[in-house]
Write a structure and sequence with these properties.
Strand 7 and strand 8 form a beta hairpin. The chain has one domain. With about 250 residues, it is an alpha+beta fold. The protein has a six-stranded antiparallel β-sheet with strand order 2-1-5-6-7-8. It has a two-stranded antiparallel ribbon with strand order 3-4. A two-stranded parallel ribbon has the order 9-10. The protein has six helices and ten strands; from the N terminus they run αααββββββββαββαα. It starts with a helix and ends in a 7-residue tail after the last helix.
Length: about 250
Amino acid sequence: MSKGKIIVASMMLFCVLCFAAVAVYFLLIKSNNAQPTGQQQKAAILQVAGLSNGKEDERTLAALFEKRIIARQVDLDRGVLLPAGPRQNVQPSCTTLSADQDPAQVRQRCSIADIYLVQNNVHEIQQIILPISGKGAKSMMHAFIALAPDGRTVKNLFYYEQNETPLLGAKVEDPQWLQQWPGKKVLNDAGQPALQVVQESAGPHDEYSVDGITGATMTSTGVEKSINFWMGDRGYGHFLQRVIRDNKLLSG
């Protein structure tokens, strides 16, 4: 009888463990593939712009977004802003990227992308906010990077959707790690991506280098690859090069 009870208990435990494993698996799949909501993105845009601490209610955030944020679209191939006003009925062309074209593992690249401009109270453009995404160690990571009007200098970086390992890769959201980003440059003097996320490097870094996350080399590499991908020719590179050449471009 005792042996029979042990067998039954073992089978029940096995079933419970199988159920838990399946539940965790589907939870991770959902987390890795889920796209951020529009409300998440608006809140993140205001945070990366330094206009929100993440504690405001939805009505306050909506009013602030309406007042200070200008949503625009960019033709990535030509590097030009599409006309302002109501969204243009332009169908972007989307292509599947091969592995050698896709260091950030975004899989698909479309020719038109949303960007956001931050204006002050007298309608001067203060920041360019660009959505970026890329694969970390175990998940797709979604962020916004805020650049100065020069198109090169980082004002802020904010990861708002990721499923990296807690206490390791998940530190991409850690304010202490993110505080090293302002003032860094994502493009060199030739307008080419130049950011480096370095691991365990002694001594001071130059204006293109930041410290990686200790114990999270794959996540740190994913940050570097995703930012350089989006700052390059398949991302916002052509547009940013135009901004560098013409500082009046954003006022158009």
